[in-house]
Amino acid sequence: MLLPLQIIVIVLTFISHEHEAIAAYVPPYTSVIAPVHKHTDAAKPLYSVQIMTTYVNMQYLHENFLIDIDAPFIWHDCIIQWNIYPGSCPANTLCTSPVSCEEFQCTDVRSSYSYQKPYCSPPDNSSTLPGWGYCTCPVNVVDPITGSCGQAMLNYDDFTVNTSNGKNVFTGSYGFYPNAACAPSSAFQSFPANVTGVMALSSSPYALPAYLFEPLKKVVGLCLPSTLSTPGVLFYGNSPYYLLPQSDVDVRSYLSYTPLIKRPDSFGYFIGVNNIVIKKRSINIPANATTKISTLDPYTILRTDIYNPVIRRFSMVTKRIPTAKPVPPFGLCFSTQGGLRVPDIDFSLPEGKKWTMSSANSIKQVTKDVACLALVDGGATSEPAIVIGTFQMEDNFLVFDLENSTFGFSSSLLRKQTSCSSFNFTLVDSF
């Protein structure tokens, strides 16, 4: 009896050590990463993130998704098939599996997390697939450029992204499997060229952050590029962030943080702004005013009662600069023939924090000789009262920390001799 007992002890010891080794394993990556591209060929400047969607002929296919930090779920150009087998999917088309109208995800998305627009017709359960014994799950989608309503089919998707330690992009990949939605190709006619999807980065349970798990932390790092030629970067995970040429400086050392404010009617991100400061003079913000961060609005929008005093103050401190005829949508423009030096605009936040908008983020060159203050009058009833647009976010490193419900911001990286287009995307082996 002794020998079998010894064998059992040895086996149990081996299993114990194996479990300890698994528990002690620390992956080489701290985040996943994807390039971010700027587009100016649509009705307004927009930004996309590139994701790997399917593996065909020994390589991944890539798709560009419009970045929307307010969208309730991911949707893109694809078709659903109930029985996917080799050769069944049309060439150059992404095929995914359907969600049935009888599954809980269908009811959940429709009732709680769908696009809530009064002009969208409520979806029904009348659609089916050939040979499919169940009804499919149509859901409403809204074109983020035109605002028009359409329908897509909820599915089981399969995406892949590269891993990173914040400094390098690894050859190793990370897969995630969201309930996204398939829309027809015609739904993307207003989108920039080669952009065929919407990547939801909101707090919704069906947005990207809900589908990425340990060891990744629920932290989105977003750096929008100001140039078309070189991409910016999207991180997901509590990683250090390194940008060239300061390859030994963690960008997190540049960040200040302010609380994220939750609103029951939105999955987007809101912060508190106490006042706007221009050359030591404060413009007070009403206590009930809310400030939204947007990746779809190109310029910061201010409600009229905030916009007018900001314009008056900026006009006063730049009165030596010759003005030019306003170029819509802007209300204050300058002649740049003699050069243009303007003061910073500080958004004062709770706990003494401030988000500084330097001239790179406040002045938009619209013609060779005319530049304008890149703020837009939102009207007397604009809600939210302030919307921070993408021009003000370019070359700023932003962090949406869903773990701690905080928003991190760097102000302009150009003053740190780097930019959002300075990440090293060269692939390296992770081992």
TrEMBL record:
Disulfide bonds join 89-101. SUPFAM superfamilies: Acid proteases (SSF50630). It holds the Pfam family TAXi_N. Residues 1-23 form the signal peptide. Keywords: Disulfide bond, Signal. PROSITE patterns: PEPTIDASE_A1. GO terms for molecular function: aspartic-type endopeptidase activity. Gene3D superfamilies: Acid Proteases. Coiled coil: none annotated. Residues 50-410 form the Peptidase A1 domain. The keyword Signal applies. One of its GO terms (biological process) is proteolysis. It comes from the Eukaryota. PANTHER family: ASPARTYL PROTEASE-RELATED (PTHR47965), OS01G0937200 PROTEIN (PTHR47965:SF63). Belongs to the peptidase A1 family. This is Peptidase A1 domain-containing protein. It comes from Lactuca virosa.
